[in-house]
Specification:
By secondary structure, the chain is of the alpha/beta class. It contains 6 helices and 9 strands; from the N terminus they run βαβαβααββαββββα. Helices cover 30% and strands 29% of the residues. The mean pLDDT is 89.
């Protein structure tokens, strides 16, 4: 292909969503994904609970995982693919790296070396999923749990914050591969109480609402390329409305 002015074309705009949703256990991540159009689940853990889902059998190897993706390149009725969860896929990738190098533990490969090798398999997985989006117009929904880690901001003191429960290198690669990283949480309000003698106490109060945070703060990791509001309900219809171009709102 010749790269000159004749090769310039308009981008296609918003395609099928390609998102990662992470958060605390039981907040409703899998339920949210199940609301997507005609979803099929690739399960790396038995986390469906009482939900009735179209799902492949729980995978136990990286090869199993890739076979599920390959099957979706054929003819089928599904419009969305859900990986539940990434943090249970990661040990399968580490196991594959160990098998490739005839070691029992990924740490045996030397400081950080095994985790760098694992990125090749993460790239393979993400490329295969992106192919489903590009060739089959399928939405890609990745689910993960959370972990709390120290966060250093040059403008602030070191804080603890919610992050994706993955090795740092894998987390960075996956974040770059999606259009939104959304933190699912229970919405909390605060109330300040007077304790007397000029002392006060602020405590959190659960509102019963579950929401998706879409913009990074010192408290949690998040991003989006859609220009979404900073917080939306944990609901697929609300998500789809939020990602529409502003002229359509």
């Amino acid at each position: 292909m010749a790269f000159d002015l004749s090769s310039v074309s308009k981008s296609k705009g918003i395609g099928a969503p390609r998102i990662l949703v992470y958060g605390t256990a039981g907040v409703g991540k899998t339920t949210f994904a199940a609301q997507a159009p005609d979803p099929v689940f690739i399960m790396t853990e038995d986390g469906a609970g009482t939900l009735e889902l179209d799902s492949f059998p729980v995978v136990s190897t990286f090869e199993d995982f890739m076979q599920c993706i390959t099957a979706l390149y054929g003819e089928h009725k599904y419009a969305s693919v859900v990986v539940d969860s990434l943090d249970h896929l990661e040990p399968l990738i580490w196991k594959r790296v160990c098998a490739d190098n005839s070691v029992e533990n990924i740490e045996k490969l030397g400081y950080g070396k095994g985790y760098v090798m694992a990125l090749d398999y993460w790239r393979e997985a993400m490329a295969a999923l992106n192919g489903l989006r590009d060739q089959k117009s399928m939405a890609i929904i990745l689910i993960a749990h959370h972990q709390i880690k120290p966060f250093k901001d040059p403008e602030l003191e070191t804080l603890d914050r919610y992050e994706i429960k993955l090795h740092q290198k894998a987390s960075g690669l996956v974040q770059e591969s999606v259009d939104a990283v959304l933190f699912a949480k229970h919405k909390v309000s605060t109330k300040t109480e007077q304790l007397g003698f000029g002392n006060t106490r602020t405590r959190g109060i659960a509102t019963g609402q579950r929401v998706l945070a879409t913009v990074e703060t010192p408290a949690y990791l998040a991003k989006n390329r859609y220009g979404m509001p900073a917080e939306i309900p944990l609901d697929w219809a609300a998500f789809m409305q939020a990602i529409q171009p502003s002229k359509e709102k």
